[in-house]
Amino acid sequence: MFRVAVVGSGPSGVYTAQALVQQTAVPDVRVHVLDRLPCPYGLVRYGVAPDHEKIKSLQGTLRTVLEHERVAFVGNVEAGTPELPARRLLELYHAVVYCTGAAADRRLGVPGEDLPGSFSATEFVSWYSAHPDAAPDGFALGVRSAVVIGVGNVAVDVARILARGAAELLPTDVPQGALDLLSGSTLREVHMVGRRGPSQAKFTTKELRELGSLPDARVSVDPAELALDPAYEDPSELPTALRRNVEVVRGWASAPPSARGRVIRLRFHLRPVELLAEAGRVAAVRFERTVPDGAGGVRGTGSYEDIEAQLVLRSVGYRGTPVPGLPFDPARGTVPHAGGRVLRDGRPSHGEYVAGWIKRGPTGVIGTNRPCAKETVASLLADAGALARREVAGEPLDVLRQSGLRPVQWPGWLAIEAAETALGASLGRRSVKIADWAGLLDAAGDGRV
Ligand SMILES: Cc1cc2nc3c(=O)[nH]c(=O)nc-3n(C[C@H](O)[C@H](O)[C@H](O)COP(=O)(O)OP(=O)(O)OC[C@H]3O[C@@H](n4cnc5c(N)ncnc54)[C@H](O)[C@@H]3O)c2cc1C
């Protein structure tokens, strides 16, 4: 038997497990998919927005892999802790594939960033996704104006959730505490602000277009600001995806005014320089206007604009965090590797691999993790002959329990799912996520050991 530990049950971890059990070169592979959370699926459960049901339904595909006879889910087990250091994993498994993601947020690096009322988009997403590490219901939404800094898909997600009415989120699995706060929201304006022009924004057209189809919100853009973008007047030379983005924005610029409730103001050519406080809380964001620098970037103009905001969500990218005991490149926020083989001091580490966001950084869609995982598995299989010669210690789950860990296995996860369905039924809703550690572990019950 050839034992592999996959650390992380997000898309890259599950695609790694799938590639391992689908190949035939090394027949008797057994895969344990470990996760620090008692729930599988990584950001598909805790990142993809609750109103994107089609993408969420990918969990069904991932599920079939975790239910494969040679794959076992082992939740509530964190790698890189004193109970389970990286070297212990190598004693228990012939190979270890780290698929730990890159879910920490990048900083803006401007004064006032940490004022009360200013959060990373990560914190906001974790809250409405019921991540058990999220701050409980700390978002004051009884305010008038929010600023979302950034123009990528995550910025679009958080702007859309802020602009949606709670009734639209009722059929989703959004936790009850978040739904209650969102239904009391008095927000009128959501400003989504980028430092460059619309032809350089990172959102995808489908997500962008969706902002214009919300039942109780309208999108507003300023044609003069858009015209600063050299490709705005004639986007025909742009790559298709960017051209379509510009066309969507141009459509909004020429649309007749609408009286729909909330306004999403898309702003461009503004870069944040400071968050301003009033009575100890954020009250506005100061932006410097920018213009194209002629080399594909922008430069400041020395002219400033303050946008009122009692809530600020910073969405300027994600980065990986180190797993103690594993090499880490702090500049890139990834683990150094060659073809998925972890590099220690520039040389491949025997039996250690990476896949997904912790390998290549936070880019691409869920499907991008599949070829990424396949590349890593190809490297692992090429090494399998040498790896299999190494003796590994007894049954890993027994060893984990002896170290004081209490893994949540598949029946425990199924019990959590059942508890979420029951919680939803008691609230007159479909399945509703449990948002705290105690509730999740309690629901996992006997499936925990
Ligand atoms: C807010 C947000 C929304 C997104 N929406 C979409 C979308 O709509 N469509 C789309 O295609 N893509 C979307 N993406 C991108 C997509 O989620 C990623 O491509 C994908 O999740 C990356 O997969 P991963 O397995 O590398 O990381 P993750 O999904 O982050 O999985 C990592 C897993 O590792 C676990 N873990 C971390 N450290 C440890 C440890 N030390 N020990 C054990 N377990 C550990 C974590 O708990 C987690 O379960 C979104 C991303 C974000 C951030």
TrEMBL record:
Signal peptide: none annotated. GO terms for molecular function: ferredoxin-NADP+ reductase activity. The keyword Nucleus does not apply. InterPro entries: FAD/NAD-bd_sf (IPR036188), FAD/NAD-binding_dom (IPR023753), Ferredox_Rdtase (IPR055275), Ferredox_Rdtase_adrenod (IPR021163). Gene3D superfamilies: FAD/NAD(P)-binding domain (3.50.50.60), NAD(P)-binding Rossmann-like Domain (3.40.50.720). It catalyses: 2 reduced [2Fe-2S]-[ferredoxin] + NADP(+) + H(+) = 2 oxidized [2Fe-2S]-[ferredoxin] + NADPH. Its EC number is 1.18.1.2. NADP(+) binds at R195, R196, E207, G364. It holds the Pfam family Pyr_redox_2. FAD binds at S12, L43, W357, G364, V365, I366. The keyword Lyase does not apply. Keywords: FAD, Flavoprotein, NADP, Oxidoreductase. Its cofactor is FAD. Residues 2-167 form the FAD/NAD(P)-binding domain. Belongs to the ferredoxin--NADP reductase type 1 family. This is ferredoxin--NADP(+) reductase. It comes from Streptomyces candidus.
